[in-house]
Amino acid sequence: MLGQEILPGKSVQLNLEVAHLHTRTPIQVPVLVERAKEDGPTVLVMAGLHGDELNGIEIVRRFLRKKLNKPTKGTIVCLPIFNIFGFLNLKRELPDGRDLNRSFPGSNSGSLAAQFAFHFMKEIAPHCDYIIDFHTGAAQRNNFPQIRCVFSDQESVELAKVFNPPFILHSSLISKTLRESMVKRKKMLLLFEGGKSNNIEENVVEEGLNGLKRVISHLGMRNYKIDISKDRQPIFIGENKWMRAPSSGMFQCFVPNGTNVQKGEVLALVTDPYGKYEKQIKASQAGYVICINEASVVYKGDAIIHIAKEKPQL
Question: Which end of the chain is flanked by fewer CB atoms within 10 Å, N or C?
Fold first, then answer.
């Protein structure tokens, strides 16, 4: 990997080098590899594809700090911050303004984002059997912890069940994303969404860390002595719809994220600053709230509450 042989039982820190700062200082993306003495699958645990999505970075950091990344079988590769430029600036995109997760499989002579994607696909992706990719909601949108996968892919669904998040959401493959590129190469990828950008939320970190441990245990790579089954069954999400602000104004949401709501239930208010206008936001359908816009001021048409219907267990 990255030109270096990692022998059984060895720990290595590698560096993916793609670009430099204006001062010619190289930007290094650390890649931490732990290979057990016994052969087994290779799992890539990654975060920071968007530089401002801190919950995922904290999940991987905690995984490393607690030395949970040392397998007894197989290899665990940790990439805590992929978009290092975005992390330095606490921004979603790279300095060229491009979304790294819309730049795969990349090009060696393309944009900065395309080059990041290209070197990842060339140097790291071929070695990995499974990828667990941690994300958060963008801007002020707070995603309740969930795994996204394609429901027609039964192997992905089964692995999502092992992760055991509160929600499992069907999400079609999007062109030029990491997930699409990995699936085309017959790799298994689980995409975790939880929380919002530029925040570290303990409940989200714990959900992600526990799910990660369940998957590693399930693959026989290490026994963390946790209850794989748990008393909670993930809820499968089918039809889902964003409710949008009927007008511009100040926004107040009354229901907690993850709540089961009924059609017609009052969920929020949009008001003006002068006490002349107040509009109740009522649930357009029954279902679960899986994402809330936590901005206090919204414009007409802004996505504010995401409601999803439960579908039968797959």
Answer: C
What are the DSSP calls for 78-120, one per residue? EES-S-HHHHHHT-SS-TTS--GGGS-S--TTS-HHHHHHHHH
**C-alpha pair distances (Å), 131 with each of 10, 32, 277, 293:** 21, 14, 49, 28
Whether the link from the prior residue into 165 is cis, omega within 30° of 0, is no
Give the Cα separation of 217 and 220 in Å (integer): 5
One-letter amino acid of 310: E
Tens-digit pLDDT profile for residues 77-94: 999 999 999 999 999 999
State the Cα–Cα distance between residues 140 and 142, nearest whole angstrom: 6
C-alpha gyration radius of the chain: 20
This prediction's pTM: 0.95
Q: How far apart are CA 98 and CA 107, in angstroms?
A: 14
User: CA-to-CA distance for 158 and 184, rounded, in angstroms?
Assistant: 19
Ordered structural domains, the chain, with CATH: 11-218 (3.40.630.10), 239-310 (2.40.50.100)
Instruction: For residue 190, give the 3-state DSSP assignment.
Output: strand
CA distance 188 to 75: 15
* Nearest CA-CA partner of 146 in 166, 170, 172, 171: 166
| Burial readout 71-88 (b: 16 or more C-beta within 10 A, e: otherwise) | beebbbbbbbbbbbbbbe
Strand 249-253 to strand 266-271: parallel, antiparallel, or no bridges (unpaired)?
antiparallel
Sign of CA dihedral 231, 195, 172, 283: positive
pLDDT, tens digit (0-9, with 9 covering 90-100), for 250-299: 999 999 999 999 999 999 999 999 999 999 999 999 999 999 999 999 99
Q: Which residue has the tokens 């790294």?
A: 100
